[in-house]
Amino acid sequence: MHICALNGSLRGSRGATHKILQSMGMGVTASGGIWDEVHLSEHKIESCRACNHCQNTKTYKCVFDGRDDAAKVFKHMVDADLLVYASPVYVFGMSSLLKRFIERIYSRAPIEGALLTKSGLFFHATDRSLTGKPFMSVVVCDNMENLTVRNTKEYFRVFSRFMDAPHVAHLERRSAAAWMAALGGTDEKAQLRAEKVLTAYVQAGQDLVIKGSISKGTKRVAEQKFVQVPFLVRLARHIPVFRPALDAEVRKRSVVMIGTE
Ligand SMILES: Cc1cc2nc3c(=O)[nH]c(=O)nc-3n(C[C@H](O)[C@H](O)[C@H](O)COP(=O)(O)O)c2cc1C
User: What whole-number distance in Å separates Cα of residue 9 and Cα of residue 98?
Assistant: First the structure.
């Protein structure tokens, strides 16, 4: 199994997204698979200009072919059996870097003329050697709320349906800054919990090679909540009258919510 992971973090190898992918890669190679992580931040990726030059030629050549690295990254994707789209959450969505790259796929097929996808949706052609592959999504953010990752998760659900690409798994790591801080911190209990999560990413890589997806048990540990909010606080925050006092308390105790270098 050859797996290509597209890392959409602007922090590249310094980021939490890479920390997760690196562990998954260890699991993939330990199980006999090939792992190829592409840091999009290390590549020059121009924005699609919607000029439709790609639609005017028989070869669907983009104006940026040879002038940026998108075609190079496409090659990594073509060679893979399975793709991992990995992104930090930036303002409630995937990073503009990953989105910008995905938009460049537009140039690879004729968009004129409708077709019906296998999932029964009206669409246009896309280069299925890129977009039609089984894939998983990895979404990383610092906030602890479910809502933070919802848009990105939904994006990949829709992507899967229009591209007829099996969405084999989805992993999200909320409270990533707190998790990273615990990994490198001095609180032994927190460190142990953080390492357990890290080990689950290695297991996720193994699962991908062996099963072609990620088992429920692996997902449960990998997505384990990292910042625990007391039950009464979770309850009380839904009652407006308690919010000012809770807000003051949260600010005072504030755990690591914002990424640190
Ligand atoms: C421009 C920007 C916007 C962000 N927006 C959010 C957000 O909406 N919600 C959130 O939980 N984290 C947000 N974050 C934090 C990142 O998602 C978080 O630090 C993540 O771990 C980054 O991944 P990385 O370390 O691999 O780059 C944002 C960070 C940046 C730089």
Answer: 8
At residue 127, what is the residue type?
D
Distance 239 CA to ligand 1 centre (A): 28
Domains of the chain (ranges; CATH) run 2-225 (3.40.50.360), 229-261 (no CATH)
pTM over 0.90: yes
Q: What's the CA gap between 35 and 19, in Å, rounded? A: 14
Summarize pLDDT for 82-114 with one digit per residue, the tens.
999 999 999 999 999 999 999 999 999 888 889
- As given in the structure block, the two tokens for residue 85 are 């789209």
Instruction: Work out whether strand 2-7 and strand 93-94 pair parallel, antiparallel, or are unpaired.
Output: unpaired
Average pLDDT, integer, range 141-146: 94
Listed residue (74, 159, 83, 72) closest to 108, CA to CA: 74
Nearest to 49, CA basis, from 107, 125, 10: 107
For ligand 1, whether the C-beta of 14 sits within 6 Å is no
Compute, in angstroms, the gap from residue 91 CA to the centroid of ligand 1. Answer: 7
Q: Number of C-alpha atoms within 13 angstroms, CB side, residue 182?
A: 22
CA 182 to chain centre: 22
Name the residue among 140, 37, 17 with its Cα closest to residue 80: 37
What spacing in Å lies between the alpha carbon of 53 and ligand 1's midpoint?
Answer: 34
Mean predicted confidence (pLDDT) in 6-20: 97
Please tell me the least confidently modeled range out of 52-56, 76-80, 92-96. Answer: 52-56
